[in-house]
């Protein structure tokens, strides 16, 4: 019984603890908080950690100031929902390099392809991609390194504008502590669009996303089946299992 109660208690604590604080989603409810495993993880092995030296960190800056912190995807009927969480909004400023580094577009492809489409986060426009730009040759970036090759696409170069999609930008001040620059600021970008905008690729079985920062300091790569099981449903299911086990054990 103690084990079952521990499971239920842990789930409750997860739901009310600061790291899982309730977040007010605007377009789709992805669960209790905007962060996920990408908060302190990148598929690239950066030599000094995510967001840190040599790019763009100087004079002790970096870290949270250039950190991608979460990504979500869901499909409900014919509507695709996405969210992206970071600590800097549309750009992160480096005092050491005296310049800002812009957030990249959200690229995605279906059925094993990559970079077929992209969302311009700033304008909320969806594009069919013909060509894209990688990390630029600028001070404080990973341009010309193996990391830039691994990061890949940053911004759309040429393509067809498929139109504006639903978008929301929520700013959550001081939500996450930033050891590098004081209290961190959390930005959440949400998007929703009808799958018909993908044209001949609307009937897909899998979809994969990637997004980065102009300096190349972090990268999110996520892949999903066409209709993934929402994390909220999974969490509720685990809670129900724990409660059921506790009741059965008590009987």
Task: Name the descriptors.
single chain, 251 residues, alpha+beta, four-stranded antiparallel β-sheet, 12 strands
Please summarize what this structure is.
The chain has 251 residues and is of the alpha+beta class. The chain has helices at residues 2-16, 146-151, 231-250, and strands at 68-76, 79-86, 91-94, 99-102, 106-110, 117-120, 125-133, 155-164, 166-178, 182-194, 206-212, 219-225.
Structure in words:
The protein has helices at residues 2-16, 146-151, 231-250; strands spanning 68-76, 79-86, 91-94, 99-102, 106-110, 117-120, 125-133, 155-164, 166-178, 182-194, 206-212, 219-225. The protein is an alpha+beta fold and 251 residues long. It has one domain (23-228). The protein has a 6-stranded antiparallel β-sheet, with no helix packed on it. Helix 1 (2-16) packs antiparallel against helix 3. The radius of gyration is 20 Å and the shape is globular. The chain starts with a helix and ends with a helix. Residues 2-20, 178-183 and 232-251 have low confidence and may be disordered.
Explain the layout of strands and helices.
Blueprint: H1 2-16, E1 68-76, E2 79-86, E3 91-94, E4 99-102, E5 106-110, E6 117-120, E7 125-133, H2 146-151, E8 155-164, E9 166-178, E10 182-194, E11 206-212, E12 219-225, H3 231-250
Antiparallel strand pairs: 1-2, 2-10, 3-4, 5-6, 5-11, 6-7, 7-8, 9-10, 11-12
Helix pairs in contact: 1-3
Main structural class: alpha+beta
Task: Give a quick account of the main beta sheet: strands, pairing sense, barrel closure.
Answer: 6 strands, antiparallel
Choose one word for the global shape: globular
* Fraction of residues in H or I helices: 10-25%
User: What's the pLDDT, averaged over the residues?
Assistant: 81
Count of distinct strands: 12
**Tally of helical runs:** 3
Low confidence ranges: 2-20, 178-183, 232-251
**Run of helices and strands:** HEEEEEEEHEEEEEH
Widest beta sheet: strand line-up: 8-7-6-5-11-12
Number of domains: 1
User: What percent of residues are in strands?
Assistant: 35-45%
Head-to-tail CA distance between termini: 10 Å
Radius of gyration: 20 Å
């Amino acid at each position: 019984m103690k084990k079952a109660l521990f499971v239920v208690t842990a789930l409750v604590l997860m739901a009310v603890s600061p790291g899982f604080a309730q977040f007010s989603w605007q377009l789709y409810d992805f669960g209790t908080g905007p962060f996920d495993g990408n908060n302190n993880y990148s598929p690239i092995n950066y030599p000094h950690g995510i967001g840190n030296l040599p790019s763009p960190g100087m004079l002790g800056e970096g870290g949270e100031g250039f950190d991608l912190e979460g990504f979500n995807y869901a499909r409900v009927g014919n509507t695709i929902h996405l969210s992206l969480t970071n600590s800097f909004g549309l750009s992160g400023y480096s005092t050491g390099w005296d310049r800002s580094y812009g957030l990249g577009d959200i690229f995605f492809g279906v059925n094993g392809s990559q970079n077929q489409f992209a969302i311009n986060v700033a304008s909320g426009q969806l594009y069919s991609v013909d060509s894209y730009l990688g990390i630029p040759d600028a001070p404080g970036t990973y341009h010309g390194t193996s990391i830039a090759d691994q990061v890949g696409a940053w911004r759309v170069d040429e393509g067809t504008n498929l139109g504006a999609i639903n978008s929301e930008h929520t700013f959550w001040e001081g939500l996450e502590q930033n050891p590098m620059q004081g209290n961190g600021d959390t930005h959440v970008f949400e998007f929703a669009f009808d799958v018909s905008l993908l044209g001949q690729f609307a009937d897909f079985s899998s979809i994969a996303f990637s997004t980065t920062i102009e300096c190349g300091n972090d990268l999110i790569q996520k892949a999903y089946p066409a209709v993934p099981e929402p994390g909220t449903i999974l969490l509720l299911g685990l809670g129900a299992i724990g409660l059921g086990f506790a009741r059965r054990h008590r009987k």
